[in-house]
Amino acid sequence: MRWPSSDRVVFPAGVVATLGVLVVVFYYPVGRVLLAAIDLGGTPLAPIVDVLADPFYVGLAHHVFADPTGIPAGVGSWLAAGGPLSAIEFGLFGFTAYQAALSALASVALGFPGAYVLARYDFWGRRTLTSLTIVPFVLPSILVAVGFQAMFGQTGLLNDALAVVGLGPIDVLYTLPAIVLAHAFYNAPLVTRFVTGAWEGVDAREIESARAMGATPIRAFRDVVLPQLLPAVLSATVLAFVFSFMSFPIVLSLGGLELQTVEVWLYAKVQSLDLEAAAALAVLESLLSLSLMYLYLRYESGQIASRSGGRSRSRRSLLDGLGTLRDPRRLAVLAYGCIAAVVFLGPVLSLLVESVTGPEGAFTTAYYEFLLAQQASAAVGTIAPLTAIRNSLLFALGTLAVAVPMGVIVSLVATRGGRGSRLAETLLSAPIAVSGIVVGLGLLQTLVFGVDVFGHRLTVTGWLAVVAAHAVAAYPFVTRNVTPALAGIDDRIVDAARSLGATRFRALLTVTLPLIVAPLVAGAAFAFAISIGEFDSTVLLAEGGASHTMPVALERYVGNRSIGPSLGPATAMGSVLLAVTAASFVVIDRVGGRYDG
Q: How far is Cα 447 from Cα 459, in angstroms, rounded to an integer?
């Protein structure tokens, strides 16, 4: 009997296996949630129409669904008020989009200058700094929220510093600027990564030609450099908008009651068991985020296609390239460095300082001793910190085992061409644009509670359910790293191996994979760190102390006041989570040789 060749088996089998995993742990559970919004037993789409017709959710736009003939009256009342922007009722979706847009713009404003410095100048520690720029992005969002509380709270590090010089206190928490700044902390490094890569790929000869024809440096940047940066900027902006739109712990912790978003309201509906309204919100949020994700993939493909492969501009020394101390460029870089240090280092340092500072400002280890006491406690509901650390690391390893192969398969589908490859990649990358709350809720209603399969009750609970949710959340980041590298491989190299007798599968193993090791390891680092920091779905799926993770433990400690009114226990747990997350990401990233150039 002649067995089929590996060319005809391995890749199709990988695609089938990937689709099988997605159907079981993503499409089916999420589909069950979304079907609740269709209400097949009653009026079709009634829950969605109810949301769209409610001014609380969509503001002035509710006239379109509640009373189409009353639209002129609604617009008329706005015009009668003089047409001020403040008179428009945007509703929950409008405010969520508004804060996400502000957050995306703030992320670009904070990340773009950093890309300029990293792409154009060389200085001591540049490689390490480049490696660390992505650490804020992979930090757990609940950790970022606690860091901002430790810095900007009434007893935070900022107000303590202002008190020394006789100023303050200032009240920043529970305001829109606090949310926007926290989102910028989270997403600006992503902008820096995207734009730095595009900037380094700009052909120096085009700039030199423009300057030789009389263009000023500003005009050469506007006419030559900026058009080549635009796809990267737009891609990063879309991603920052999607992540800010679906942000949960940051808004929950820093927003207060008056600054709730769709994601927080969705969680509240799940908690109150109003699953029909939650499903309607999930449908509308997912449609918006998936549409934006499709646009992002289009921009990414345009970015890859526009790479010229020309000669990159050499970096100048930061000290020599900026002239004297009075040089405006030097002053601008120094000012940006100060702002970046406050925004990025401030919350992290505040977290660490608060964890060892007592109520009177003296050094203390009481908060870490509290964690050890929790570890030794046998009280019901107690979260043991060491158990949470162990769970997080084990879940992250399990996530790697599932997410990395899935991410590579999706990248291969995306780069094999064809009319439907971009649409297929969008569908296969859908988890990146679907709320973790929705995924967690879907898994609860299906695999966790049990599904009848051929007369048998199939249940997936505990660590297996958590790993499944983490893998679904993480594998698109593997794809995002691997796809551009696969698309950039010269087909002639693979063809040469094939002409020498190698099968497609052997060419993949011996030619293609060695060329994508660095981005593959970088994607694995993302997957590992994202699993460690995943909170949205884990908070719904964790069953008692046996499957609690570090972010869930941190969320529990935020409200703990066992040793006083400070954030001490939460900052101590957050410091542990910070150390584990940063060390894991940097070690995996550097071992893989991601920054070898």
A: 5
